[in-house]
Write a structure and sequence with these properties.
There is one protein chain. The chain is an alpha+beta fold. The longest helix has 30 residues. The strands form eight sheets. A nine-stranded antiparallel beta sheet has the order 25-26-27-28-37-34-33-30-31. Strands 40, 41, 42, 43, 44, 45 and 46 form a seven-stranded antiparallel beta sheet that branches. Strands 11, 13, 14, 17, 38 and 39 form a six-stranded antiparallel beta sheet that branches. It folds into five domains: 265 residues, 7-stranded beta/alpha barrel, CATH 3.20.110; 83 residues, Substrate Binding Domain Of Dnak, Chain:A, Domain 2 (Up-down Bundle); 90 residues, Sandwich (Immunoglobulin-like), CATH 2.60.40; 227 residues, Distorted Sandwich (Beta-galactosidase, Chain A, domain 5); 87 residues, Immunoglobulin-like. It is built from 14 helices and 46 strands. It is globular. Helix 2 crosses helix 3.
C-alpha cells in the first residue's frame, strides 16, 4: 500500500509542476485567432460533381491503367452511386471508355445504364486529357473528332463541356478549337488568368471565338471531410458568384471516397456550411449564363506551367512529330487515290487505329515527358505500330497513284511527290537499284523535260548483279499536292556539274549565303546574306551551351532550375572536317566531347535552298544539365513570333522558356529583316537580347532517373529573310522542313496522268491547308479539307479540286452545317482572320 501511495504522490507532484508550466508559458502566448468564417453560408451553393482524375500513364504504365486503375475506379464509383443514388459523377477521356468496352463489357454496360439515367456524365469530348501546347493543331482537332464521335456513337451524348483540369497550359487557339468542336464550356486547372484570378470568365481566342471557362475551387480533387467554408472564402474574392461547381475525389483514380459520402450527409443541413447539391457540369454553366453576374473576358493564351516539359523525354516528342506528319500525309494521298477512282479502298482501320495511339500518347504526362521511364519504353513500342500502319497506308496509296502515271522513257522512273499545297523546290533523297553493266560507275538523273540535273550519290553498294544507290538532288517546282517524274540511268562516270556550292575546311557557300566557321571551336562566326547584303549573326552562333539545371529533385521533369553557370561546348577545340562536297550540297562536320557525352553537328548548305541546316546527333549521358543551341542574330525587337497549333503568337523576348512547334522568328521592329529558326522535333525555346535558343536535351532525374540518356538525332535550320516572318512565309518553311519531298521508284508503263501534275491548288499563300482526308465513317464518302488563315487577314480562298465537287461547311467533328454554292471544280471560301475552316466535299460524277 505504501508503494502505491508513494507512486501516486510522485505522479501528482509532476502533474502539478506540468500544470504550473503550462500556466506560466501561456502568459507569453498570443491569443488564438479565430479563422475567418463565411458570412451567411446558406446563401452559397456547392454543386458537387464526383470525379476521377485518371492519369493514363504516369508513375505506372498503360497496362496497369487498363487492368487496375480504371476498372477499380469505375467499380468503386458505381458502388458509391448505389449507396447514394442521387450522386453525380463526371468522367472524361474517350480512350478510357473504349478500353473498358473492349476489356470489361459487363462494366461498360453498367456505366452505359448510369449515363442513360443522367447521373454518370461524359465530359471533355477529347480522346484523352491531352497536352495543349505540343500537339499539332490537326492532332487537337482529332482529339475532339475521335472523342466526341465516340460519345455520340456509344451513348448518344453530345459533350458540350471541355475538361482538362491537369494539362500544363492552354494555347490561344483552343477557344476556337473548342467552339468549332461543339464545346461551349471549358473546365481547366492550371495557368488561370493573373494577376487577378477569377474562377469564371469568358475566354476569347485570337480569332474572337469565346468559351465560358471555369477553374474549380480547390482544384480537381477536393476532400469534403473538412467542409467547404474555407474553399468558398477563397473562391468568392474576385467574383460576384455565390454558386460553385466542386470536383471531389481521391486523386490518381479512385473516385468519390467513403469519407466524401459521410461528409455530404454530415454537412448537407449544416447551417455553418454552404448548401450542397449534386450537380451536372453543363447545367452549372447554363445557370451562370442565365445569372446577372458580370463575367470578365480574358483575351490571351493561358500559359506557362512546367516549362521543362517542353524538352524532357526527347524521343517521345520526336515520335509524336513524326507520327503526326506521317498520318497527315498518308491521309492526303489515300483520300486522293480513293476519291479519284484509282481504287475503292481507303485504309480506314490502319489510319484510325494509328491516330488513336498518337492521341493517347499525347496525354499530358506522356507527351510532356513527366512519366516514369517504363512509360516511355512502352510508348516507343506503341509508336512502332503507328509507323507500321501509317507507312502501309501511305505506300499503298502512292503505289496506286503511281500506277496511273505515264512513266514511259529511258531508265527507271522516280516520282517525287509533294504533300504540301504549294509548289516547292527542295532536296529529295532517292534510293534505287540498277542492273550493273559496262557503264555503271554512277548514275545520271533527268527531269520530266529531259534535262540532266545535278545529282550527288551519298551511298553506293553492290547487290549481286545490281548496284544500290542512295542519292540526293534538287527537285525543282514540284507542283502543289502533286508530283513530278524524274528518270535515273547508269552513268559510266561520275557526272560533273558546276553549281554555286563551295566548301573548304571552315567555309561553306551557295548562291544565298557565305558561312564561316571558327576553325578551333566549329561555331559559326559569320553568315553573310548575299541576297540582302547583310550579316545575319551578331556574334558566334550554333554554340552548344551546357547550362547547370538544378530544379527541385522531385520536380526535375517539370521544372527548370537553370543557373548562371554554363559551358560553351567546343571551347577546348573541336574536330572539324569536310564530309561532302558536291553539286547538290556541301557539309562540314563538327565533333565535340563534353564530359561523358558526344556531339556531332553537320552544318550544310544546299543548291537553290535558302536555309542553313544543321543535322545533329548526340550521345547524351549527363544529369542536371541542359543543352541549348544559341544564335545571336543581328536583328532587334522586344518581341518574337512562335508557332502554336493552327497559328502563331507574339511573345516578349524576355528569356523565358516557352513552347513552340516547327519554328520561331525574330524580325526587326522596322519589319525590314528577320531570322527564323526551324526544327523537326523540338518544342522548347527562349529569346533574349537578340539571341535565339533552341532547347536540345536535358538531364532530368525524377520521376525517370535515366531520362533521355542515349542517342538522339534532330534537324534545325536558320532561315534569314527580307521582311517579317509572315511576309517571308516562315510558316511554309517550317512545314517543308518537317515534310520532306517523297521520292518513289515506279515501273515503266502507260497511264492517263502526265509526267508533271498538281491535284489541288490553294490560294492565297496566307492560307495553310492542314488536312485532306476521307470523312470519318466506313460507309461515308465525303472528303474533308481543313485550312486556316495564318496572318490575321480576312481572305477569299480559292481551292481547285481535281473533280467537280459539292461543298458543305462543317465543324471540326465533320458535322455538315450548310451547303456553299453549286457544284464546281473551283471553290471559293471566305475565311476570317486566324479562322480554322473545315469543308466536306463530295465528288460530283457526270
Amino acid at each position: 500500500m505504501k508503494r502505491i501511495i508513494k507512486t501516486l504522490a510522485f505522479i501528482s507532484f509532476f502533474f502539478v509542476i506540468f500544470c504550473l508550466y503550462q500556466v506560466s508559458s501561456g502568459q507569453d502566448q498570443q491569443p488564438v485567432k479565430t479563422p475567418p468564417t463565411l458570412k451567411n453560408p446558406r446563401d452559397y451553393t456547392a454543386y458537387l460533381i464526383g470525379h476521377a482524375h485518371i492519369d493514363l500513364s504516369w508513375l505506372w504504365i498503360w497496362e496497369e491503367t487498363v487492368h487496375d486503375r480504371v476498372p477499380n475506379t469505375f467499380l468503386g464509383t458505381l458502388a458509391q452511386m448505389d449507396r447514394m443514388p442521387a450522386l453525380t459523377f463526371a468522367q472524361s477521356q474517350a480512350a478510357i471508355y473504349e478500353v473498358i468496352e473492349k476489356e470489361y463489357p459487363v462494366l461498360f454496360q453498367m456505366i452505359t445504364k448510369k449515363i442513360k439515367e443522367g447521373t454518370w456524365i461524359p465530359v471533355g469530348g477529347m480522346w484523352v486529357e491531352s497536352d495543349l501546347n505540343l500537339p499539332d493543331g490537326e492532332a487537337l482537332a482529332r482529339q475532339f473528332l475521335y472523342g466526341k464521335r465516340y460519345f455520340l456513337e456509344k451513348f448518344g451524348v453530345d459533350v458540350r463541356v471541355g475538361w482538362n483540369p491537369d494539362s500544363f497550359g492552354q494555347n490561344w487557339q483552343l477557344p476556337q478549337i473548342l467552339q468549332k468542336s461543339g464545346v461551349k464550356y471549358y473546365v481547366f486547372g492550371r495557368c488561370a488568368p493573373s494577376p487577378d484570378p477569377t474562377h469564371v470568365f469568358w475566354w476569347e481566342g485570337m480569332d474572337g471565338s469565346k468559351v465560358l471557362a471555369f477553374v474549380p475551387p480547390g482544384e480537381y480533387n477536393v476532400d469534403l471531410k473538412s467542409g467547404l467554408s474555407e474553399i468558398f472564402l477563397r473562391a468568392i474574392k474576385n467574383t460576384g458568384l455565390k454558386d460553385f461547381m466542386i470536383l471531389y475525389s481521391e486523386d490518381y483514380g479512385g473516385g468519390p471516397r467513403n469519407s466524401d459520402l459521410e461528409a455530404i450527409r454530415k454537412y448537407k443541413n449544416d447551417r455553418t456550411q454552404p448548401k450542397m447539391e449534386f450537380g451536372v457540369p453543363e447545367d452549372y454553366f447554363k445557370n451562370i449564363e442565365a445569372s446577372a453576374v458580370q463575367i470578365p473576358t480574358v483575351k490571351k493564351e493561358l500559359n506557362f506551367a512546367f516549362p521543362a516539359c517542353y524538352t524532357t523525354q526527347a524521343e517521345t516528342k520526336k515520335n509524336n512529330r513524326k507520327s503526326e506528319n506521317l498520318l497527315l500525309t498518308a491521309e492526303k494521298f489515300s483520300a486522293l487515290a480513293a476519291t479519284s477512282g484509282y481504287r475503292d479502298f481507303y485504309p480506314e482501320r490502319d489510319l484510325d487505329e494509328a491516330w488513336k495511339i498518337v492521341l493517347r500518347n499525347q496525354f499530358h504526362d506522356i507527351l510532356a515527358g513527366s512519366s516514369i521511364g517504363p512509360v516511355h519504353d512502352e510508348v516507343r513500342e506503341f509508336y512502332r505500330e503507328v509507323f507500321r500502319r501509317g507507312n502501309r497506308a501511305l505506300d499503298f496509296s502512292l503505289e496506286t497513284i503511281t500506277s496511273m502515271i505515264d512513266t514511259r522513257g529511258e531508265g527507271l522512273p522516280l516520282i517525287v511527290y509533294n504533300q504540301l499545297f504549294w509548289e516547292r523546290t527542295e532536296p529529295a533523297v532517292g534510293e534505287i537499284s540498277l542492273v550493273q553493266n559496262s557503264s555503271s560507275a554512277s548514275i545520271k538523273i533527268f527531269d520530266s523535260a529531259g534535262l540532266e540535273i545535278p545529282v550527288q550519290v551519298i551511298e553506293k553498294q553492290p547487290e549481286e548483279s545490281k548496284n544500290f544507290y542512295r542519292f540526293i538532288f534538287i527537285a525543282e517546282n514540284v507542283p502543289s499536292m502533286g508530283y513530278k517524274v524524274y528518270r535515273v540511268v547508269n552513268s559510266d562516270a561520275v557526272p560533273e556539274f558546276k553549281t554555286s556550292l563551295a566548301v573548304t575546311a571552315d567555309k561553306l557557300e551557295n548562291e544565298y549565303f557565305k558561312v564561316i566557321l571558327n576553325p578551333l571551336t566549329g561555331w559559326i562566326k559569320s553568315i553573310y546574306d548575299k541576297t540582302n547584303g547583310k550579316e545575319v549573326l551578331a556574334g558566334e552562333g550554333n554554340v552548344l551551351q551546357a547550362i547547370v539545371d538544378e530544379p527541385k529533385e522531385d520536380m526535375s521533369a517539370w521544372e527548370l532550375g537553370l543557373k548562371d553557370t554554363y559551358w560553351n561546348i567546343g571551347e577546348a577545340g573541336a574536330k572539324i572536317e569536310v564530309i561532302e562536297r558536291g553539286p547538290v550540297r556541301v557539309v562540314i562536320r563538327i565533333k565535340n566531347i563534353f564530359r561523358n557525352s558526344e556531339f556531332e553537328q553537320d552544318v550544310m548548305l544546299y543548291h537553290k535552298v535558302p536555309r542553313v541546316d544543321c543535322q545533329m546527333r548526340l550521345n547524351w549521358q549527363e544529369r542536371k544539365l541542359m543543352i541549348k543551341a544559341a544564335f545571336p542574330v543581328n536583328v532587334k525587337n522586344e518581341t518574337a513570333e512562335f508557332e502554336i497549333p493552327f497559328g502563331s503568337i507574339i511573345r516578349p523576348t524576355n528569356g523565358a522558356e516557352v513552347p513552340s512547334l516547327k519554328w520561331i522568328d525574330v524580325s526587326d521592329s522596322s519589319g525590314d529583316y528577320g531570322v527564323s529558326l526551324l526544327n523537326d522535333c523540338k518544342y522548347g525555346f527562349d529569346v533574349k537580347g537578340g539571341t535565339m535558343r533552341i532547347s536540345i536535351i536535358r538531364g532530368a532525374t525524377s520521376p525517370d532517373p535515366e531520362a533521355d540518356r542515349g542517342c538522339h538525332e534532330l534537324l534545325y535550320s536558320l532561315y534569314p529573310h527580307r521582311g517579317t516572318g509572315k511576309e517571308a512565309n516562315t510558316i511554309r518553311r517550317g512545314y517543308e522542313l518537317n515534310n520532306q519531298l517523297l521520292a518513289k521508284v515506279g515501273m515503266v508503263h502507260a497511264g492517263p496522268l502526265p509526267a508533271v501534275h498538281s491535284f489541288f491548288q490553294v490560294e492565297p499563300e496566307n492560307v495553310i491547308v492542314t488536312a485532306l482526308k476521307k470523312e470519318m465513317g466506313y460507309y461515308s464518302r465525303g472528303v474533308i479539307l481543313r485550312l486556316y488563315e495564318s496572318q490575321g487577314k480576312k481572305t477569299e480562298v480559292k481551292v481547285k479540286f481535281p473533280w467537280k465537287v459539292e461543298v458543305y461547311e462543317t465543324n471540326l467533328i465533320e458535322q455538315p452545317s450548310k451547303k456553299t454554292g453549286e457544284a464546281s471544280q473551283q471553290v471559293l471560301l471566305t475565311v476570317e482572320p486566324y479562322e480554322i475552316k473545315t469543308v466536306k466535299v463530295f465528288r460530283k460524277v457526270g
